[in-house]
Specification:
Blueprint lengths: L1 H10 L1 H11 L6 H10 L9 H8 L3 E6 L3 E7 L5 H17 L1 H12 L4 H22 L12
Length: 148
């Protein structure tokens, strides 16, 4: 099935180009890139990465009602659970394979931040990087390895 899906993507130039750009981001693998292509209709359905992040359920919302009710921020339960799961796996992979993400994760945990909060931020970073690569039509360039 995977070979058939990749063959279908390779048969259409626009799909293949966006697939290659999405997988250029460290942490985004073939399954995540394919599912993002499907859910965004080849990145035409969502123009802004923040709207897609909201659709994926990785954006925290405040729970308030005036001045009397104030709860901590939570992510929506009305999300596409499949893409959220894939992005969680991608974030875990990015923490292991991307030096910048690993340092960011370790710094936040050392500050006492919650693991899931940090993982959610990394998921958002991955989505924003994929959308940036697609919008620029250039592969993601990891500048961290060029930093002194």
């Amino acid at each position: 099935v995977d070979a058939d899906i990749l063959e279908l993507i390779a048969s259409e130039a626009a799909l293949h180009e966006n697939y290659e750009l999405a997988t250029s981001v460290k942490g985004i693998g073939p399954q995540t890139a394919i599912y993002m292509l499907i859910t965004t209709e080849n990145f035409t359905l969502f123009k802004d990465w923040r709207k897609y992040a909201c659709y994926a359920g990785i954006v925290p919302f405040d729970h308030r009602s005036g001045t009397s009710i104030s709860r901590k921020s939570r992510v929506s339960s009305m999300a596409n659970k499949r893409i959220k799961t894939l992005l969680s796996s991608a974030a875990a992979s990015a923490i292991q394979s991307n030096v910048e993400m690993k340092m960011y994760y370790q710094r936040r945990i050392a500050e006492g931040k919650h693991h899931m909060s940090t993982l959610n931020i990394i998921r958002n970073k991955l989505v924003s990087r994929v959308f940036a690569a697609i919008n620029r039509q250039e592969p993601y360039l990891d500048l961290h390895k060029y930093a002194a």
